[in-house]
């Protein structure tokens, strides 16, 4: 299932896919339909929810803003303000979420997520964006710096995500900006100029981790700016992949979670059953093994703390980190527009 093609992902947007429980529809990233992540829901209801899939956050928002109906969606943190401003979501009743207080406080430290009106976001999973590379073809010293993405020696051998947030995190880090909450015009332009250089080396922009892993496994590219899950897929296929999170300029982190959609027509009870299944401590093992992500629950993370995959892809590191937390919506739209121009060759 995780190796869905881009074509299937696009077609999945037209109607719910993987129909199961008709009383709960989840609009999600491909890969999160793995039952081991929400086993408690299946134990209670005998089947998983109905899923529809998307390839990136902006695509998902546009679909929902255009009237697509679901009960829950799974945006990353920087998108939540956009959902709120558009009036697409409503607060959760945390009295119905017993493990809500187990979520690490740093994942809820924003008025975008919770305020006097309620809790608008349930953070569930987090990961890193860093350099994935073919360890047989790429020397370790080359991935010691993010400048590998503009190195002429790698022309036609790199891949970047077709995601504005991720490529700007890369470009800011590569040009010395480690916090995107207060970017100056000069910092923005410097990052844009660097990204235009990086574009010259790109063989393809990947739309989802399955596409990224296929690009690398086929030999089409040797270096990618990658989430944890693409690396998990490659390792599962015995591909010689490294994940360099400690390039001298740094790497990025992100976290995602669920929002409750106003236009949902499913069961309210099952919405909470699904969220509660995600927040069970046992969900952390399934999340790590299938996708490579960490869990937002401190209790859940404690169950996998000693796993080597945590040490490799999720541990604390001693380089700059650009955290993809909610930033200025106007700045984000500016970045999105500039990225589209860069991809088009302008």
From TrEMBL:
A Pfam family per the record: SBP_bac_6
Segments crossing the lipid bilayer: none
Signal peptide: 1-19
Keyword field contains Ubl conjugation: no
Keyword Membrane annotated: no
Keywords linked to the UniProt accession: Signal
PANTHER family, sorted: SPERMIDINE/PUTRESCINE-BINDING PERIPLASMIC PROTEIN (PTHR30222), SPERMIDINE_PUTRESCINE-BINDING PERIPLASMIC PROTEIN (PTHR30222:SF17)
Protein name: Spermidine/putrescine transport system substrate-binding protein
């Amino acid at each position: 299932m995780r190796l869905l093609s881009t074509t299937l992902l696009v077609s999945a947007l037209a109607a719910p896919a993987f129909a199961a429980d008709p009383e709960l529809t989840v609009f999600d990233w491909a890969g999160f339909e793995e039952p081991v992540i929400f086993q408690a829901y299946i134990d209670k209801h005998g089947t998983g929810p109905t899923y529809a899939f998307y390839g990136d956050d902006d695509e998902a928002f546009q679909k929902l803003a255009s009237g697509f109906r679901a009960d829950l969606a799974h945006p990353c943190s920087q998108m939540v303000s956009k959902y709120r401003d558009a009036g697409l979501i409503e607060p959760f009743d945390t009295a119905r979420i017993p493990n809500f207080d187990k979520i690490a406080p740093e994942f809820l430290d924003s008025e975008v997520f919770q305020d006097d009106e309620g809790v608008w976001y349930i953070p569930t999973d987090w990961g890193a964006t860093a350099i994935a590379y073919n360890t047989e073809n790429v020397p370790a010293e080359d991935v010691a710096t993010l400048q590998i993405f503009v190195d002429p020696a790698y022309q036609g051998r790199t891949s970047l995500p077709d995601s504005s947030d991720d490529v700007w995190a890369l470009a800011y880090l590569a040009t010395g900006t480690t916090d995107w909450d207060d970017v100056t015009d000069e910092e923005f332009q410097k990052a844009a100029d660097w990204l235009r250089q990086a574009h010259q080396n790109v063989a393809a922009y990947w739309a989802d981790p399955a596409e990224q892993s296929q690009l690398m496994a086929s030999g089409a590219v040797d270096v990618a700016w990658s989430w944890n899950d693409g690396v998990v897929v490659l390792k599962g296929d015995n591909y010689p992949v490294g994940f360099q999170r400690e390039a001298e300029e740094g790497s990025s982190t992100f976290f995602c979670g669920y929002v409750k959609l106003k236009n949902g027509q499913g069961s309210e009870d099952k919405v909470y059953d699904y969220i509660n299944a995600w927040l069970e401590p046992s969900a952390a093992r399934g999340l790590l093994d299938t996708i490579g992500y960490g869990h937002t629950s401190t209790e859940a993370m404690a169950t996998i703390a000693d796993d080597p995959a945590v040490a490799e892809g999720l541990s604390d590191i001693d380089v700059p980190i650009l955290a993809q937390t909610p930033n200025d919506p106007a700045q984000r739209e500016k970045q999105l527009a500039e990225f589209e121009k860069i991809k088009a060759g302008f």
